Amino acid sequence: MRLRRSAIAVATVTMITASACGGDTGPPVLNWYINPDNGGQAELAEKCTDEAGGAYEVQTSILPNDASAQREQLIRRLAANDSSIDLMSVDPPFVPEFAEAGFLLDIPDERAEEFTDGVVESAVTGATWRDELVGIPFWANTQLLWYRQSVAEQAGLDPEAGPVTWEQIIAAAEETGTTVAVQANRYEGYTVWINALIEGTGTSVLLNPEAEVEDLELGLSEPGAEEGAAVIAELVDAGVAGPAVSTANEEEARALFQGDSGGFMVNWPYVWQAANGEVDAGALDASFIEDLGWTIYPQTVEGEDSAPPFGGITLGIGAFTEYPDEAIEAAACITSPESRTEYMLFSGNPSASEESYSDPEVVEAFPMAEFILESLQLAKPRPQTPFYNEVSESLQRTYHPPSSVQPDSTPDEAAELIVGVLNKEVLL
After folding, report:
1. What digits encode the pLDDT tens for the residues 252-269?
2. Regions of the chain short of the pLDDT cut 70
3. What is the spatial order of strands in the sheet that 310-317 belongs to?
């Protein structure tokens, strides 16, 4: 069964009142708090309700657009032991915080293998805390390097021949008078880039993320952190980042790349469907698609595997749900390999199941499917810690604007701020 594009609005509802939550009047109603998408999660809710055969109903409630605002709303409700949160779509960096606070229902050991079988390792890692599966991988996002084939050819760069480095694409952009589009506004997307650059050197922002505050060890004093910061400084100094790099998010980066100066870009796979949609609407010339190339995320250090960003959504089950058994079954339906494939085709968001990438419809819809899978196999998560929000905001504050980044001092400043914030000596 493929997801239908009809009745999206019907499946998406606002807060369900207590009187509508089943009881003696019908099957249990499971509230699934979702991040905004194009209706794919609402379609899965309808599908799984149908397949439940009356055992339960799944209805969706939409969270705010911003990931931090989603976290805040869920935490406030869960801190009050809200039993109306049966299922929730959680940004993976927040999973440790939710788990540590006791906001996630334990995944039964006998179901863990079912929920992780055939799932890309980065998604399993993102759903795990203290060696226990605390959430269920749903969809798994990652970034690719997108490039204009004509620009790469003009610069004598062949991304198809093997991995390329940040240094190479910056030099290629300089030589051709084009740009390298990134996300460097002061928001979560900038943390994504900073973390990927550092992870690409073999080190991490936090070396022991499961430790208590007083025992945390930061990798920001390691040489790798300096190498990662050097990429940001080099990109800005070369003048190829575009005039608005300090306010660029995913969409600004996409607009720059699709413009006359576009040469290279790091971004999520959604850009493929977005560009094709604009071509269909007559807003973008079809020659852009014909010239578009893609490959694995750039290496920070030549010869060392890159560490593409990992994102997506982990499905959590609320610790205070009144219907734990039904919630588990609904989660199994929502995250089945078939459902993950259907959601990828419907929404454009990559599946966490490896088998999705050999599905003929996926291969046709996503010509870069093999690269998405390879990228997910290489991907590294952002720091997995209950203190992630503090770590992320500290990185954004010290590394922004990108023109201020100094390889020999900015990582140390970030480490100092993180320690100060976590020890409640400094306010963000």
Report:
1. 999 999 999 999 999 999
2. 1-24
3. 57-62, 29-34, 87-90, 310-317, 136-142
Please give the distance of CA 338 from its chain centroid, rounded to a whole number: 21
Q: Which CATH architecture has domain 8-134+311-372?
A: 3-Layer(aba) Sandwich (3.40)
Q: Parallel, antiparallel, or unpaired for β 29-34 and 310-317? A: unpaired
Cis peptide before 383 (omega within 30 of 0): no
Question: Does the pTM exceed 0.85?
Answer: yes
142-308+382-422: CATH, from 3.30.360.10, 3.40.190.10, 3.30.420.40, 3.20.20.150: 3.40.190.10
Q: Is 17 in a helix, a strand, or coil? A: coil
State pLDDT tens for residues 121-135: 999 999 999 999 999
d(CA 191, CA 214): 23
Strands 87-90 and 144-148: unpaired
pLDDT score for 15: 37
> Quick one: pLDDT at residue 25?
77
Which pLDDT belongs to residue 162?
87
Please check whether the two domains, 8-134+311-372 and 142-308+382-422, share a CATH topology: yes
pLDDT at 427: 87
Write the DSSP string, 341-395.
HHHHHHH-PPBSBGGGGG-HHHHHH-TTHHHHHHHHHH-BPSP-STTHHHHHHHH
Q: Return the domain boundaries, the chain.
A: 8-134+311-372, 142-308+382-422
| DSSP output for 257-326 | HHSTTEEEEEE-THHHHHHHHHHHTTSS-HHHHHHEEEESPPBSSTTS----BEEEEEEEEBTT-S-HHH
Planar angle of CA 229, 232, 235, nearest 5 degrees = 145
